[in-house]
Fold this sequence. Notes:
Elements: E1 50-53, E2 67-75, E3 84-89, H1 101-107, H2 111-121, E4 133-140, H3 141-160, H4 188-192
Parallel strand pairs: 1-3
Antiparallel strand pairs: 2-3, 2-4
Amino acid sequence: MSMARYGRLGDFFRTEISTCADIPQIPQTWENPNVNHTFVNEPGDNDPIDFFDIGQDPGYFGQIRQSKVLGGIAPNDGGETDWKILVIDINDPIAPFVNTVEDVEKYRPGVTAAFYDWFQYYKVARGDDVIPIVGNAYQNASYITQHVLPQGYEWWVDLVAGRIDPDGLAVNQTSFEEFESYAAPSETEKEFGIPAEDDVQPAAAKPTQYDEWYYLDEEFGLIQQGK
């Protein structure tokens, strides 16, 4: 969703590690772009809150699963608040044994550090700057569950209730009948213009620049090949 603002989907280049987690977004949350967010002190990125699931099940498109919050980091992405929440599928083998970032290090050493670094440099290969992490560390699960997620939910409710100008965002929802944005689940195909049947087309060819390897130096600078 967030990358669609750049006119293309999934504009991510391979760097020295590949992502090893699902990075979807949390339903019924919104990072409000109209106010500066607590902690990051920057406006939101106008998207739902992102999370990354370090469980072993890769999942599938459209899947709904229950996850445990373990912590989170707060990137300041180009002057926008863009929380990344660390979670694990509750059905993962180590889920009963991990409740914190430190617990993850015990059972899957290096995973949280790899993602902390990756969220700083994953846009460098396309020409963007390194993304600073506010606080320079993971924030604990209690802060995420008591502050970040409730605030994101409140802003989403205000958005779909019409109390905030959507500014072009689609705000249709199936949860609150009292709001004008409500659509009955049985009417979603009609309301949202969803085709009744799939029309599966061949995948578009991958642009060549997305099929290359890119390397970074110790300062996360892009190494120019052959120079």
